[in-house]
Design a protein that fits this description.
The protein contains one helix and eight strands, in the order αββββββββ. By secondary structure, the chain is mainly beta. The chain has an eight-stranded antiparallel barrel with strand order 1-2-3-4-5-6-7-8. It has one domain (about 15-150): AOC barrel-like, CATH 2.40.350. It has one helix spanning about 1-10; strands at about 20-40, 40-55, 55-70, 75-85, 90-105, 105-120, 125-135, 140-150.
């Protein structure tokens, strides 16, 4: 019976192995305001943003964000950017989606990598970040992330 089970299992397709890793790092960000408008008591700001990351990710991510500031000092934002650089030992591009909240100058959020190319094709990335505004259009912070690379 055991021999029959081994023979049957050998007929099944072999799944692609994957390699996971985790890491941390830091980032700096700059933004250029593209549009500001009022929506009732809220202020909506559309910005072009650029992030430079070091550590587990090394490279830049350029994209757009939309933030909504409330009169109580709280804000929420979401956006996307295209990362060009390396994650671990793989290089390429990866589109990140991000969302974050803040109070005053501090913020925290999460991100996911949704579409990669080059050495980052097929990578699954997720993580969290936190930071502080360092000026009117600049900020800095740290992140933690995990990446799962598909092997061929």
């Amino acid at each position: 019976m055991a021999l029959l089970a081994v023979a049957f299992l050998s007929l099944l397709p072999v799944a692609n192995a994957s390699r996971s890793s985790t890491g941390t790092g830091s980032f700096t960000a700059t933004s250029t305001t593209m549009n500001v408008r009022s929506a009732g008591p809220n202020t909506v700001i559309d910005s072009q943003s650029s992030f430079t990351a070091t550590g587990f990710f090394t490279g830049t991510c350029v994209g757009t964000t939309r933030s909504v500031g409330r009169s109580n000092g709280q804000s929420t934002a979401h956006g996307s950017c295209t990362f060009t650089g390396t994650i671990g030992d793989k290089s390429g591009t990866l589109v990140f989606r991000l969302e974050f909240t803040g109070v005053g100058a501090s913020f925290q959020g999460r991100f996911v990598g949704v579409q990669g190319s080059g050495g980052l094709a097929g990578v699954h990335v997720s993580g969290t970040f936190q930071g502080m505004a360092t000026g009117m259009t600049t900020s800095a912070g740290t992140y933690s992330a995990s990446a799962r690379f598909s092997s061929s």
